[in-house]
C-alpha cells in the first residue's frame, strides 16, 4: 500500500515537474516543419545582400530570423518579409506556412508565378507582391483568401481582367492593382468589397468599363483609376477625398 502511495506521489511529482518544464520553456521556438520550409525558401533564393545569413539550420529558433515573426503562443510563423532584393524564387515551399497572416514578397524578381502556392493560406490578411515580375492572369482562386485586408499586386506584368471572384473579398480595405497590363471591364462584383477604403487601378485597364456598383463602396477614401481607357460614367463620389480619373 505504502509502496503504491509512494509510486503515485512520484508520478504526481514527475507530472508536475514535467508540466513545470513545459511552462518555463520558451514557446517562441519555431516548429520544425516550418523551419524546414523557410530553409527551402532560402535555398531557392539568391540572397543578393546576405540579409538571410541568420537563416541557418543550426539557429534552431527560426522565429528570431530576420524577416520572420511567430505567434508567441502557438509558435507558428505568422509573418514573413522577404523584401531584401532577392531573386529567382518560385514560392513553392511557402505552402507549408499555412498560419501566415502577413507575407511581403515585394521587389523579388520571380521567375515563376508564386500565387498558386498562396491560395490555401486562409489566415492571410496582408499580401504584398508588388514589383515582382509576376506575369499571366490574376488567378480567381486568390479570392479564396477571404480574410485579406490588404492586397498589393501593383507594378507587375499581370494580364487579363480583374476576377469576378474578388467580390468575395468583403474585408479587403486596400487593393492596389496599378501598373499592370490588365484589360476588360472592372467586374460588377467589386461593389461587394464593401470594406474598401483604398482602390488603385491606375495605369492599366486598357479598355472596358466602370461598373455602376462602384457607387456602393461607401468607405472609399482613395480611388485612382487614372491613365486608363475606361468608358462609363464617373460615379457619385462626393464623400471620397481622393479621386483621380
Ligand atoms: C524567451 O526568449 C526571449 C528572447 O530570448 C526572452 O527574452 C524570454 O525571457 C524567454 N522567455 C522565457 C519564458 O524563457
Ligand atoms: C540587407 O543587407 C544590406 C547589406 O548588408 C543592408 O544594407 C540592408 O539594409 C539590408 N536590408 C534589410 C531590409 O535589412
Ligand atoms: C505575445 O504577443 C502579443 C501580441 O503581439 C503581446 O501583446 C504579448 O505581450 C506577447 N506575450 C509574450 C509573453 O511575449
Ligand atoms: C513590403 O515591403 C516594402 C519594402 O520594405 C514596403 O515598402 C511595403 O510597405 C511593405 N508592404 C506592406 C504591405 O507592408
Ligand atoms: C521575369 O520573369 C520571366 C519569366 O516569367 C523571365 O523570363 C524574365 O527574365 C524575368 N524578368 C527579369 C527582368 O528578370
Ligand atoms: C481555399 O481555402 C481552403 C481553406 O480555407 C482550402 O481548404 C482550399 O484548399 C483552398 N482552395 C484552394 C484552391 O487552394
Ligand atoms: C517597379 O518594380 C521594379 C522592380 O522591383 C522597381 O525597380 C521599380 O522601382 C518599381 N516601380 C515603381 C514605380 O514602383
Ligand atoms: C464566393 O465564395 C463562395 C464560397 O465561399 C463561392 O461559392 C462563390 O462562388 C464565390 N463567389 C465568387 C464570385 O467567386
Ligand atoms: C454580392 O452580394 C450580393 C448580396 O449579398 C449577392 O447576392 C451576390 O451574389 C454577391 N456577388 C458576388 C460576386 O459576390
Ligand atoms: C479589350 O481588349 C482585348 C484585346 O486587347 C479584347 O480581347 C477585349 O474584348 C476588350 N474588352 C472590351 C471590354 O472591350
Ligand atoms: C463601354 O464599352 C463597352 C465595349 O467597348 C460597351 O459594351 C459598353 O456598353 C460601354 N459602356 C458605356 C457606359 O458606354
UniProtKB/TrEMBL annotation:
Domain Leucine-rich repeat-containing N-terminal plant-type: 32-71
Localisation per UniProt entry: Cell membrane
Residues that span the membrane, as ranges: none
Protein name per Swiss-Prot or TrEMBL: Leucine-rich repeat-containing, plant-type, leucine-rich repeat domain superfamily
Leader sequence residues: 1-20
InterPro entries (alphabetical): Leu-rich_rpt, Leu-rich_rpt_typical-subtyp, LRR_dom_sf, LRR_N_plant-typ, RLP23-like
Gene Ontology cellular component list: plasma membrane
Keywords, in A-Z order: Cell membrane, Glycoprotein, Leucine-rich repeat, Membrane, Repeat, Signal, Transmembrane, Transmembrane helix
Gene3D superfamilies documented for this protein: Ribonuclease Inhibitor
Pfam family name, one: LRRNT_2
MF GO annotations: signaling receptor activity
PANTHER family linked: LEUCINE-RICH RECEPTOR-LIKE KINASE FAMILY PROTEIN (PTHR48063:SF103), LRR RECEPTOR-LIKE KINASE (PTHR48063)
